[in-house]
Amino acid sequence: MSRAGSGLFALLVAAGGLGAAAPARADVPPVAAPQVTAPAPLVGAATGSLLVDVRFAAPVAAPVVALLEGAVPGDGPRLPLAADGLDWTGAVPVSAAQAGTWTLADVTVGGELVPHGAALATAVVQGSDAPAVTFAPVTRVPVPRGSTVVIAGRAVLGDSGRPAARLRLAVWSSALAGGPPSEPVPFVRTDAQGRFRWTQLMDGRGDAVVSVARVLGEQVVQRTQLRVAWLRTSVTAVPSATRARAGARVVVRGRVQGAPGAAVLLQRRVGARWVPLAGAASRAGAYAVPFRLPAGRTTLRVVQPRTAEWRSSVSRSVVVTGVRNRT
């Protein structure tokens, strides 16, 4: 397995952002003959170029950008075009995984939308047997923030099942809801069997997931994510009484450090198992869970269950005793 050098990694412009250009103005020349041309059918890991050609009715001096909508949600790059007389042209790399109808949705000149009616032009990209990438942690997870995690995976062609050898994959870590970074990212190539292995540093500022994806130009293609880190918290538990009459109301209070608003669950030990008694939501990091004290010794603990952001946390166990009334 080999590693390719780092390369610039631009944020993918989502389809919902295509309308960010300024409204069309009457002095922007109209488009006379827009065209989008698909490459020959793509098979496996092969890539091709989707060609865009825009001709204006009059010369244009300002920068021209084509706004595309891809066949897969999120495939919507902004494509700067190069001038060739009245024609402005450009190319977008595409893969078999992006097969479907591509649309030239808008064109801007100097940031101004070119007036037009429906979609300017469309083309159908044909593709089959696209690679599928899977990976899993070698390191035991979850890992603390700021530590490293080793992942191993494989890329195979989706229809035939053959290895996707020498496939170039980008690897990065990010927050749970974070997108790809704009700074350079490292790449790894699969070996002859389509396998790869990578050691990733989980940034202590908030990285929680590792992402592996193909990157074509400024497009993130076939992104796969794996959660490997959670935030840590701690829970305390103090009963209002450690000895009381059986059947009395006892309140277990405590704090959830670092996770305000987190839910907690009071549990009772029965043999080797922990059985839920009651739950509550913390407020400003504090909680209170009431319960009826049974007769005899009862071992309790409070659990803050794992969430999308936080690792689960367990308090120290406490023992309370319910005393029967003497008759």
UniProtKB/TrEMBL annotation:
Please, which domain of life does this record's source organism belong to?
A: Bacteria
The protein's UniProt keywords, in alphabetical order, are: Signal
Signal peptide region: 1-26
The yes or no answer to whether the keyword Signal is present is yes
Name of the protein this chain belongs to: Uncharacterized protein
Which species is this UniProt entry from? Motilibacter peucedani
